[in-house]
Design brief:
The chain is mostly helical and about 350 residues long. The protein contains twelve helices and no strands. It has two domains: about 170 residues; about 170 residues, no CATH class. The longest helix is centred in the first third of the chain and has 36 residues.
């Protein structure tokens, strides 16, 4: 085996270990989120779920520390000889550690967050930033963010785990765990009593549909650019976002039906994209893929909700959100097509 082949094999093994540790970290974050939703009276920093999270950090820190020890040359900066992409991972470990200490102090001073404030607490956001730097190391190492290259399983895992972590921190915007479309909405004219109270939940839900569309459209476009795109990219991304979001709140039946419908829509979108694969270099390809995927995903989710319970929004609202999300996905795809013409 040549030296270059040995480096390539070593890189695959390195990224695989990092990916497995990433599964540990994301799983621990999600389980901690589940505990906050489902375990009453959780008022301590020292919980089994925090223990799993920081044990994962310790092992990850040891793994990246081992890389630093094995690659550092005399007279060189500490991180100067790390494999490409892993200096960011080392910084992520540092940020995660600082965030953990800050989280302990924050809880001691201000108490345990019990609502949406837990997702935007500064110490938690610091943990999230560190986690993203760690999880993205295999992608950066393989160069898939800077150029159109073949997606390996470890690079796909890196992107999916990164997306899952972002989805967790954006859970308050997600249409999946507590779908608003099954709640009654009575249109109330401007200037009449109760107008704001009636519309604010719907406005928040509409914003959630748009935010989640962008959340899965951006990594999807990374996956499908070029001739060697990921065949089931929409299914993997939407399925991950939907099912992890529903799982955190304990798999309520109606939300599960919505996740089934959304996943089915993603499967159809992937099949339709496979029929268009010969046109991947066309300017319209990425906008059609992203916009069409959004249309199918949200139409599927609403269909699942209707079957399991009912969609109580008026037709103008539920059909409008599907079209609006399609436009948003197409807009993201148009931007990607203008910045990634090398995919042709």
């Amino acid at each position: 085996m040549s030296t270059s082949e040995k480096v390539q094999v070593g890189g695959r093994h390195r990224d695989l270990v990092t990916g497995v540790l990433g599964i540990w970290l994301v799983g621990a974050v999600l389980s901690d989120g589940w505990a906050h939703f489902n375990v009453p009276g959780l008022e301590s920093f020292f919980t089994p779920w925090h223990g799993a999270l920081y044990a994962g950090l310790a092992v990850t820190a040891g793994w990246i520390g081992l890389m630093v020890w094995r690659t550092r040359a005399a007279g060189r900066p500490v991180l100067g000889d790390l494999p490409r992409g892993y200096a960011g991972g080392a910084l992520g470990v540092l940020l995660f550690g600082v965030g953990g200490v800050a989280d302990l102090l924050w809880h001691e001073v201000f108490g345990i967050e019990v609502a949406v404030d837990a997702l935007v607490s500064p110490s938690h956001l610091l943990l999230g930033a560190g986690g993203l730097l760690i999880l993205g190391s295999p992608m950066r190492a393989q160069g898939v963010l800077g150029s159109i290259r073949r997606w390996t399983p470890t690079a796909v895992l890196s992107l999916v785990l990164s997306t899952a972590l972002v989805a967790f921190f954006m859970l308050y915007t997600s249409p999946f765990p507590m779908p608003a479309a099954v709640q009654s909405f009575v249109p109330t004219p401007e200037g009449t009593p109760g107008h704001l109270e009636a519309e604010l939940p719907v406005v928040a839900a509409l914003s959630g549909y748009l935010a989640t569309t962008v959340l899965f459209a951006m990594p999807l476009l990374l996956m499908v650019r070029g001739r060697a795109g990921v065949p089931a990219g929409a299914t993997v991304l939407v399925g991950t976002i939907a099912w992890l979001s529903v799982g955190v709140v304990g798999f309520p039946a109606t939300a599960v039906a919505g996740a089934v419908g959304a996943t089915a829509g993603a499967v159809i979108a992937d099949f339709a994209r496979s029929r268009l694969s010969g046109h991947h270099g066309e300017r319209w390809f990425l906008p059609v893929v992203a916009g069409g995927t959004a249309l199918l995903v949200w139409a599927g989710q609403l269909a699942g909700l209707a079957i399991a319970d009912a969609v109580r929004w008026p037709v103008s609202l539920w059909s409008g959100v599907v079209v609006l999300a399609g436009f948003a996905g197409a807009a993201v795809g148009l931007l990607a097509s203008r910045t990634g013409r090398s995919a042709a």
